[in-house]
Amino acid sequence: MFALADSRMEASFDDALRVGAKAATILSPLMIEGETGSLLKDRVRDKANAAGMVLCGANCMGFYNFLDGVRLCGFETRENLRPGPIALMTHSGSIFGALIDCEERLDFSIAVSSGQELNVTLADYIDYALTRPETRVIGLFMEAARDGAGFRKALAKAAARNIPVVALKVGRTGKSAELAVSHSGALVGDDGAYEAVFDAYGVHRVHSVEELAFTLMMFAQGREAAAGGLVSIHDSGGERGLMLDLADDANVPFAELAPETLQMLADTLDPGLPPVNPLDAWGTGHDYERIFSDCFSAMMHDPATALGAVVVDRAMKGAVPYQYSNILYGHAAESGKPMFLVSNHQGSGESTDAVRLTRDGYPVIDSVPGFLRGARALLDHRDRQSRPAGTPPQPPARAVADWTERLKTPAPFDEAEGLALLDSFSVPVVASRKARTVPEVLDAASRLGYPLVLKTAMPGIAHKSDVGGVRVGIDNEAALLDAYADMSARLGPLVLLAPMVGGPKVEMLLGMVADAQFGPIVTIAMGGVHAELLHDRVTALPPFSSGEALRLIGKLKLRKLLDGLRGEPALDIAALCEAASNFSVLAAALGGTGPGQIAAIDVNPVIVRPSGVVAVDALVEIARPSE
Question: What domains lie within the chain, and their CATH numbers?
């Protein structure tokens, strides 16, 4: 372990190599002020790689392997650390210290501050944690995956072994200028690729350190959520109402209790208290310990209950009221379902009972929103096990071969060629014809029929509507000639004509962006001119089945528009799912950042009708050779 000034590092590192050291932890950042040319960090990494040495760091806090009693950290820690079921990997040394030193309810198998990850990355640490049977849940605080392929492989291994992964990924609000050319790039941004990867492998994403800590506690207790929803018991009507509001925000459903359970509650509660879930069980206070225990036990044993919570506030000096902790140790525990003691606020005190309860398998959670985020994660983990896998279509071999050959030439795609690309992968497209003279325009109109859409097809114009390059609703020859005269004078003579798609419809967007780390990322979004304004989108790793497309579309905020509102007919969601699945096959086959690959595709809009879908515009960007 190197805990030296960087000015002394290289000579000492060479000494370690000479005696055959095969692993090292480096705390310092490996930066020398004013250094030019070959950098110290690069030299150390290259020497380690040549010697087959693995490095933790540099610029890290070290690691703890509690299972084997190996601790390499440059700072003091609490004395009562003990092995546990949580594996933690973090890019932040401060978070490393905070979760290990300040929170006795978290017990770790291994914990790593990975720093710069010179030659060992998060993927390697996850893979190692999965070799240890003691690891029950993995927690990540991450800035980026430095080994995208390895990261995906490690997450796939965790999913296959049913080990939950909880991730706090920072940097999700960044903007990527490189992706700004296409709508899809703007929608995906810097974070959409991680959303797609996390969704594909069932990673539970949290958005604060509090949520990370509590969700890890909740998974570490070891019992999986059963079928059904949440039950909670309270000693306050106001806090019961708060739970209802916050659970709705967190999309955590409450269990629909059986009539016999509700009758048992009614027979047990003080007069005037409604037998409902969530339950306010505090009436006169007379015999409340028995009332709470009997009611909560009945609720936990109900077949519609997945998990339960006793939601009460801490007592003086932060103590956990023993009357309520006894409920968790009582008959309710026989249900075998996850149970938690939850308070709205911890206060400034502390309680050894909170640590004892948590270690006994009944985590004490000091935040209702934090508890609900963890509850949602437990339910999602349960539901993933029964998610239909589905099989994506096979890529059409002839189309793959033809377009692979076409992509060897760097000539840009125009819209007509983009539509032809979609059509060859069985994504339905609108009929269209190109023209560059008045006679050709009139001939195209006679073949396609009115009403028409007229769009510029001049090279280099990516977003036609931004420059007045789209005219819709052209319903006669005079209007067509007038539109063509204006457009050709302003933008150039080459145009594309297509029939209008009328009737009830919703505009959607299908997109693909090739991410440098994770490869092609598919986007499904509400489309048209509002695609970026609404930002109602989901991302996914291709290829995927039509069944998976249905699940993804179900996550859109405006999903209900497809069902038909205010007397409008329902739209053809099945056709949309099939088109999205076929598009994902195209993305997987031809998308990428290397030569001869497609960097981005916009299909906007894809018009969804009561019967069928049709793509009416396509923008294709070929990957540019790296400088």
Answer: 60-210 (3.40.50.261), 229-384 (3.40.50.261), 431-500 (3.30.1490.20), 506-622 (3.30.470.20)
